[in-house]
Amino acid sequence: MAELLFSDASPAYVLSAHRLLRDDRTLFRQVGRLPPRYEPRAAAEVEALRVEHATLAEVMRHMLALLQLIFALSTCCEAAEAASVS
Predict the structure, then answer these.
(1) Is 21 exposed, middle or buried (0-12, 13-18, 19+ CB in 10 A)?
(2) Is the pTM of this model over 0.85?
(3) Across all residues in the chain, what is the average pLDDT?
(4) What string of H, E and C letters represents the secondary structure of the chain?
């Protein structure tokens, strides 16, 4: 793979190719441990993973918005409570 990507199969390029494949969980899957081997995923599987990642990102955005709202309300309530005590 290093030869294909970088036109060089020296150790640094082999490690770089390995890291590219290892970190890309959407397009490739690891099929062997020693030595690590990778194969491309089917187009339908890639699309399903992209939809799953997009859905998860949307859920995380909603959770963040909810937490920000809760924090804002708690801050507001604390300020109102402090004002009424004074």
Answers:
(1) buried
(2) no
(3) 90
(4) CHHHHHCCCCHHHHHHHHHHHHHCCCCEEEEECCCCEEEECCHHHHHHHHHHHHHHHHHHHHHHHHHHHHHHHHHHHHHHHHHHHC
- Token pair, residue 75, equals 């801050």
Q: Where are the domains of the chain?
A: 1-41, 42-86
pLDDT per residue over 32-69, tens digit each? 888 888 899 999 999 999 999 999 999 999 999 999 99
The model's pLDDT over 65-82, given as tens digits with 9 standing for 90+, comes to 999 999 999 888 777 777
